[in-house]
Amino acid sequence: MALKVYYDLMSQPSRAVYMFLKLNKIPFEDKVLALRKGEHFTEEYARINPFKLVPVIDDNGFVLTESVAILKYLACKYNVPDHWYPRTDLRAQAKIDEYCNWQHLNTRGSAAMLFRELLIIPRAKNQPIDMGKVEKYRKLVRKAVTGIETHFLKSQPFLCGNDISIADILGACELIQLYAVQEENLYESSPTVKAWMQRVRERHQSVFDESSKMVYRAHDVTKSSLGSNL
Question: Predominant location of this chain (predicted)?
């Protein structure tokens, strides 16, 4: 039975899992959910994931609901190149775990909320953008970018060392979400982080761009409605 993957490419963690699968040529059955249509709120999907979020994998009846756990499971099961998530080098593995744990309340906790405040919440509730909250999350994004620059990257090319890992695709997928709402200056203002983002993209550009196509589309749509003076 094929590995089933439930996802929406507008979801940052979904993109990371999708990208990992594509890069490592792991076969899977697409189970695309349109979050904008509320397809993740159906009773049928709630039986698969009671949290009603994406991504989710169903590996022959084994269901896993968290993107970091999914990536580690896939890396180990499919024996992918060791740079993604080292199996025997415990220190290298721990550095990846360090970023994956840190990112929830930092890279993801700030960038995802800024995206929601600028695009999702105003459209869903048909109300003006709350600039107080926008400024709050901009400040948190800047703090996260500083953390990425000074603690994780320092003088190395990738977040956890000299080669790309699951940490890099998780981090890049979170920050590229800001491009969708004209806020990419928040990470591009750091030459170190900007260069790292470009490095991740160029490493696997065709898959990165395919995974990010909905982000690029959203960028074009919001260009007229969200200006630099926002």
Answer: cytoplasm
Q: Based on the structure, what is the number of domains in the chain?
A: 2
Q: 39-76 pLDDT, tens per residue? A: 999 999 999 999 999 999 999 999 999 999 999 999 99
Specify whether the CB–CB gap between 74 and 59 falls below 8 A. Answer: no
Contact criterion met (CB below 8 Å) for 21 and 74 = yes
Residue 227: per-residue pLDDT = 62
Q: Which residues does 24 contact at the CB level (< 8 Å), separation at least 6?
A: 74, 78, 80, 81, 84
172 and 201 co-located in one domain: yes
pLDDT on residue 124? 87
Radius of gyration of the chain (CA): 17
Q: Could you tell me if 174 and 108 are in contact, meaning their C-beta atoms sit under 8 angstroms apart?
A: yes
d(CA 147, CA 164): 18
CATH number for the domain that contains residue 22? 3.40.30.10
Q: Residue 187: in which H helix or E strand, if any?
A: helix 185-188
Concatenate the DSSP letters of all residues of 63-88 into one string.
EE--HHHHHHHHHHHTT--TTSS-SS
Helix (H, G, I), strand (E, B) or coil at 4: strand
